[in-house]
Specification:
Helix content is 46%, strand content 19%. Strands 15-16-14-13-11-17 form a six-stranded mixed β-sheet. It has a five-stranded antiparallel β-sheet with strand order 2-1-5-4-3, sandwiched between helices. Helix 8 runs antiparallel to helix 9 and helix 11 runs antiparallel to helix 13.
């Protein structure tokens, strides 16, 4: 057998490999693009989230700055006359605390006059630790707390650029108090004294923060498009102990928040949270959702398409190889009978026969090989029509036993050449609806298959029977049989068993394919079983027919099965 074109590593195989490599490269490129897209989306989301956190931090800082500005304009201005001018010498005489009674008299007053009755003004001289007061007289405990706390806070926490500070939690009355003060510095920023007064702890109340929210933009207008603060950000203020001081309405959970501390005003903690409904406005569009599921789905689809394409290429390559083998096998099968026909035709033409018997033998060989060629050509035509779905049948009722016997009689000369015997097992009264030409092709293919793959001098059995309203026909050989795992694959076009693929047995690989296609076009089917005596049984089933008036009882189908089971010796 000539080597197949694709098996020799020709250009089509190279083209297929190149296409497969391009598909793999396409998959790699798609993977890289998907990764870049995912990374870009992740980066975009991370940038947007950072921006939202920054906006929350800006809002908290702006609120702190607003409160500081408000207190600076009132409290800072009231304390300034006693603290603004720096002492020229550390030993300079200090003003009395009564000076504050004029400048800070109306600053940070308690809401209740009764609570405001414990208000007093003080001066603490850091140089000698002395305390001077004006107004209500603080208790010794309050005086000691005042000296210790202000001295520590004024020297450690208070900054030279501050104009005031408020300490919450001052003792000395039924209600919690607050101390508002400022530090006076000498040259070189040396703290020498603190001036201040006692007031109520609630002087920095919700109204203070609400007023700032109403009059100060916490988010730049270019970003917020002029939207109200409360629609964009939620504010919560608490003191150092965690006690709520202020909270804007409808605070919602959100991951975008930040905190700032009012160090000058009692170390209050301000928390600003971006409202969920404002995320799209501040992020200039909705935050990009994760594209991982979509990207994974697209990559999976791309990979599946690449795999399917590669499998299709492999299938096309295999079909091309099988077609190449088919052409080689058909060429071989055509050449053998043609050689015989040409040989005996030339013998007759040149008058080399000596007797009439030799002439008759030569013509028999020519007729036999011609029938063999005709059978092969009919097989190829049926295969071509089946692939293009152009097969047209003309089924008609017929006596299946009589039709099969006629086919056997015409085929016996080919069995003679293979030294095969044929035995029939016709059931009684077997009638079918079939196209005579198609039936002939199916039976000849089954007989030809049995001769090719059976041993020399074997007995081939062909039988018929009725099963309900179906007519069955089978052909048994005495060969090695067909393994169960390959009984379905043998019906595929161009397929041959592994043990026969490289053997000297000629075959095109389309005989059984044509049998099943024609059987199914009749509304029947074909399958493989084990023959009772070993070997393979090919079973064919087609629609049965009720006995018609045109049938006679002269055929062995009407006789007993024992009579029908006769042996036709090859050549008889």
């Amino acid at each position: 057998m000539a080597p197949s074109y694709f098996r020799s590593g020709g250009r089509p195989r190279s083209h297929a490999m190149l296409l497969a490599m391009l598909l793999v490269c396409t998959l790699a490129l798609a993977t890289m693009l998907a990764y870049v897209a995912h990374d870009a989306a992740r980066s975009h989301r991370a940038t947007a989230e950072r921006a939202l956190h920054d906006y929350a931090a800006v809002a908290a800082w702006e609120l702190v700055a607003g409160v500081n500005d408000r207190l600076q304009s009132t409290l800072g201005a009231a304390l300034a006359p006693t603290t603004r001018v720096r002492a020229t010498t550390p030993y300079e005489l200090l003003p009395a605390p009564s000076a504050l009674a004029t400048t800070a008299d109306n600053v940070l007053r308690c809401a209740s006059p009764a609570a405001d009755s414990s208000r007093f003004y003080f001066r603490i001289d850091f140089r000698d630790g002395s305390l001077a007061t004006f107004g209500a007289q603080p208790t010794p405990a309050v005086r000691q707390w005042l000296v210790d706390t202000i001295a520590s806070h004024g020297r450690g926490t208070y900054q030279p650029d501050w104009s005031y500070a408020i300490l919450l939690g001052a003792p000395g009355s039924a209600t919690a108090g607050a101390i508002a003060y400022a530090v006076k510095y000498a040259e070189h920023r040396a703290p020498i004294a603190a001036y201040g007064f006692r007031t109520c702890a609630d002087v920095i109340d919700a109204a203070t923060f609400r007023d700032v929210l109403a009059h100060r933009a916490l988010i730049p207008a270019a970003v917020s498009s002029g939207a109200a603060n409360d629609s964009i950000v939620a504010i919560a203020v608490r003191d150092a102990s965690g006690r709520p001081v202020f909270q804007s309405g409808g605070v919602q959970a959100s991951p975008y928040s930040a905190e700032a501390r009012l160090d000058q005003a009692g170390s209050l903690i301000v928390r600003a949270t971006i409202r969920p409904r404002a995320v799209e406005l501040l992020a200039l569009g909705a935050l990009p959702e994760s594209r991982v599921p979509i990207l994974v789905g697209l990559l999976t689809l791309t990979a599946a398409m690449v795999v399917i394409t590669i499998m299709q290429l492999r299938r096309e390559h295999e079909l091309s190889r099988l077609r190449s083998d088919f052409i080689s096998s058909v060429s071989h099968e055509l050449r053998t009978p043609l050689s015989q026909i040409l040989l005996f035709a030339e013998t007759l033409n040149l008058g080399r026969v000596r007797t009439e018997e030799e002439r008759h033998s030569a013509t028999d060989v020519i007729v036999q090989e011609g029938r063999r060629l005709m059978h092969l050509v009919e097989n190829i035509l049926h295969f071509s029509r089946a692939e293009r779905q152009m097969t047209r049948l003309g089924p008609e009722p017929l006596d299946l036993n009589q039709a099969v016997q006629t086919i056997i009689d015409d085929w016996l000369p080919l069995a003679t050449a293979a030294d095969a015997q044929v035995r029939t097992q016709f059931g009684p009264d077997v009638h079918a609806v079939a196209d005579p030409s198609a039936l002939r092709q199916m039976v000849l293919n089954l007989l030809d298959n049995a001769v090719k793959y059976g041993p020399p001098s074997q007995t081939i059995t062909i039988g018929t029977c009725m099963t309900g309203d179906r007519a069955r026909l089978w052909v048994d050989d005495q060969g090695e049989g067909i393994p169960a795992r390959e009984r379905e694959r043998v019906w595929s076009s161009f397929y041959r068993l592994d043990r026969h693929a490289n053997s000297s047995v000629a075959g095109s690989g389309i005989g059984l394919f044509v049998v099943r296609e024609l059987a199914r076009l009749h509304g029947g089917d074909a399958w493989v079983e084990d023959a009772p005596g070993g070997g393979a049984r090919i079973m064919l089933e087609i629609p049965g027919a009720a006995r018609a008036s045109g049938f006679t009882d002269e055929h062995p189908s009407a006789t007993s099965v024992a009579v029908a089971e006769k042996t036709l010796e090859s050549g008889v």
